[in-house]
Automatic annotation (TrEMBL):
GO terms for biological process: amino acid biosynthetic process; aromatic amino acid family biosynthetic process; chorismate biosynthetic process. The gene is aroA. InterPro entries: Enolpyruvate_Tfrase_dom, Enolpyruvate_Tfrase_sf, EPSP_synthase, EPSP_synthase_CS, RNA3'P_cycl/enolpyr_Trfase_a/b. It comes from Gemmobacter aquaticus. One of its GO terms (molecular function) is 3-phosphoshikimate 1-carboxyvinyltransferase activity. This is 3-phosphoshikimate 1-carboxyvinyltransferase. Monomer.
Length: 448
């Protein structure tokens, strides 16, 4: 679990051109789901390319606590012997989900329609994040939640002994909430319906169909209407986890701002619910070629050739694009600082309830690096200083947030003076090989 060890300061210095191939690890969202859906199937699910980041390891541990057999066979190669829908056993101890919002929210959904009680906690970051967005719909199934003020962890969920199916319109664009409701719906008799006005990442829907659930998505005037038939017998699957586009974002953006760079990033998801950053970068004038489009692990992917792009322009990011790039705003705001003119990011208030308040963390750190920022509750505006224009020479606070840590280290690779982060330890939650991979491309990263 992250955030309980010692802080690990790290510094990035202006780096030589980045060259080579950046093979990033497996997708975090799909890795969590492979373990959880595998635990809900009857028989053995085999997984390759699993992200062995701390967030996913915490979910693996939780699945064991609920009775599934989870085994590592080699790097990225795992199996899950599932207990079937409704087959969870009550855990004997508190479930610690570490730093992971996805882990805790999806697992709460999964156990909420089974007659058992489970208590969840997490690190100092996760204990600040709102759980009401999940426990509100879970209450409609008949589950009860007892947490700290404001719906915070630690929290005990008493699962519904006689769950009823639910029809729920998502009040916020959140794949975690959507997935929690679908997972709860698995063990409710009849049809559970989730309606999302704005499309969010659709891995749960795709994978549930793969595992044999009866799930239908209709696109109507109210948005996506997702209908799931309860109490299916899920069939174990072989899951090949594709690479994580949210991790790929870091080498891609580093190559765009470090002079002379030319790198290849293989197998980046082009799933329309995940590719908002890449559309945005192209609109800003980034030199990215999308090579060999194909399908891998059920996801559309392409190899990205990315070159230093010295004349990117700030743009207004369409707010409706936010769900497809929600985790990429921190690194986009770094690229924006190296573009000409303002980049305007509106409709981004969800960033305030991630591992940290990401609007505040990016604004304070970029200001310390000499960049002019405007912000309000729902908006971040970065006034770009052009290629090589960021002064740097500051230490950013990462607040137990892996994406903030990686974003400022990327900034330091192109800024005039080094940029440090007070704590790089959270990077292990999503991208444990970040330091080795970036150094291998030619980045100058130093511990301390
Ligand atoms: O469902 C998922 O796997 C995720 C959904 C998103 O969160 P929200 O559902 O809170 O937007 C995202 O930020 C997170 O990193 C992963
Ligand atoms: C928001 C994130 O993850 P989670 O919500 O799972 O903690 C993220 O990885 O950027």
């Amino acid at each position: 679990m992250s955030g309980h060890g010692d802080a690990q300061p790290m510094t990035a210095r202006k780096s030589g051109p980045l060259k080579g191939t950046a093979a990033v690890p497996g997708d975090k969202s799909i890795s969590h789901r492979a373990l959880i859906f595998g635990a809900m199937a009857v028989g053995e699910t085999k997984i390759t390319g699993l992200l062995e980041g701390q967030d996913v390891l915490d979910t693996a541990k939780a699945m064991r606590a609920f009775g599934a057999e989870v085994t590592q066979h080699g790097p990225g190669a795992w199996s899950v012997h599932g207990v079937g829908v409704g087959g969870f056993r009550e855990p004997a101890d508190v479930i610690d989900c570490g730093n992971s919002g996805t882990g805790v929210r999806l697992i709460m959904g999964t156990m909420a329609t089974t007659a058992m009680t489970a208590t969840f906690t997490g690190d100092a970051s996760l204990r600040k994040r709102p759980m009401g967005r999940v426990t509100d719909p879970l209450a409609l199934f008949g589950a009860r939640a007892y947490g700290r003020q404001g719906g915070r962890l630690p929290m005990t969920i008493v699962g519904a002994a006689n769950p009823v199916p639910v029809r729920y319109a998502l009040p916020v664009a959140s794949a975690q909430v959507k997935s929690a409701v679908l997972l709860a719906g698995l063990n409710a008799p009849g049809e559970t319906v989730v309606i999302e006005r704005e499309p969010t990442r659709d891995h749960s829907e795709r994978m549930l169909v793969g595992f044999g659930a009866e799930l239908n998505v209709e696109r109507g005037p109210e948005g996506h209407v997702i209908t799931l038939k309860g109490r299916p017998e899920l069939r174990p699957q072989t899951v090949a986890v594709p690479r994580d586009p949210s991790s790929a974002a870091f080498p891609v953006c580093a190559a765009l701002i470090v002079e002379g760079s030319d790198i290849l990033v293989p197998g980046v998801s082009q799933n329309l619910t995940r590719n908002g950053l890449y559309l945005t970068l192209v609109e800003m004038g980034a030199e990215i070629e999308f090579l060999d489009p194909r399908e891998e692990g059920g996801e559309p992917v392409a190899d990205l050739r990315v070159r230093f792009s010295g004349s990117m322009k700030g743009i207004e990011v369409p707010p409706e694009r936010a769900p497809s790039m929600i985790d990429e705003y921190p690194i986009l705001s770094v690229v924006a600082a190296f573009a000409e003119g303002p980049t305007v990011m509106r409709g981004v208030k969800e960033l305030r309830v991630k591992e940290s308040d990401r609007i505040d963390a990016m604004a304070r750190g970029l200001e310390a690096c000499g960049v002019r920022i405007e912000e309000d509750e729902d908006t971040l505006i970065v006034h770009g200083m052009g290629a090589g224009g960021m002064p740097g020479g500051a230490t950013a606070k990462t607040h137990l947030d892996h994406r903030i840590a990686m974003s400022f280290l990327v900034a330091g690779m192109a800024a005039q003076k080094p940029v440090s982060v007070d704590d790089a330890s959270p990077i292990v939650t999503s991208f444990p090989i970040f330091e080795a991979l970036m150094s291998g491309l030619g980045a100058t990263l130093e511990r301390g």
